[in-house]
Design goal:
Blueprint: H1 18-26, H2 51-69, E1 80-84, E2 87-91, E3 100-102, E4 119-122, E5 126-133, E6 136-142, E7 147-150, E8 171-178, E9 186-190, E10 194-197
Length: 198
């Protein structure tokens, strides 16, 4: 699983982020799989996922194992980026039977995340529009932009009633299924957090 840190960012001006390192570690490997990120999980102690979300993570790991053993793969690697003027397109290596989706029910109560689903740009510019199209995510930007990051917010969310990690996102794929041991719970294939230069 890809860490999302605690509910209080401790990386401030750090140039490295553990989640980015974890995604890089599994890239192109046959002996490691990125099951998914922890960012959709509620925290029990301001650091670790609560019991319900730990059980979801266990079910996701079993699903990822089943898919991997069937030769369908599971890890979603960092996207590739191409830029034309004020438009950036991020292309994700997803499976043919899935597409990008915006998760509708925000677990964060609208806090610590904006209309761009956890996608941010670096370098001083800003996002003015975001669109999903199959395996592609299109950004319209304004101003100087040198990079894009997702679910890697560097913020302090140690506030009452918001027991989620500092890094947040609402991007997943359309591939989902009901949990086996958690009636009424759907399992989703969430995009891992990433950073990329553009």
């Amino acid at each position: 699983m890809q860490t999302a840190g605690s509910d209080q960012s401790h990386h401030g001006s750090d140039t490295n982020h553990a989640a980015a390192d974890q995604l890089a570690f599994v890239a192109g490997r046959d002996d490691a799989v990125m099951v998914g990120p922890i960012y959709p999980s509620a925290l029990s102690d301001r650091v670790h996922p609560d019991l319900h979300h730990s059980r979801i993570m266990g079910e996701l790991a079993a699903w990822a194992l089943q898919e991997t053993m069937a030769g369908r793969g599971w890890t979603i690697p960092r996207p590739t980026a191409r830029r034309q003027g004020d438009r950036i397109t991020l292309s994700f290596a997803l499976r043919p039977d899935e597409a990008l989706a915006a998760h509708q029910a925000s677990p964060y109560g609208g806090r610590g995340i904006d209309a761009f689903l956890g996608v941010e740009v670096t370098g001083g510019g800003m996002i003015t529009a975001l669109a999903l199209d199959g395996h592609d995510l299109h950004l319209t930007i304004d101003g100087p932009v040198s990079g894009v990051r997702y679910a890697m917010q560097r913020q302090n969310m140690r506030v009452e009633g918001n027991a989620h990690p500092a890094g947040r996102g609402l991007l997943r794929t359309t591939l989902s299924r009901p949990a086996v041991h958690l009636p009424g719970t759907m399992l989703h294939r969430w995009l891992p957090g990433f950073e990329i230069d553009v």
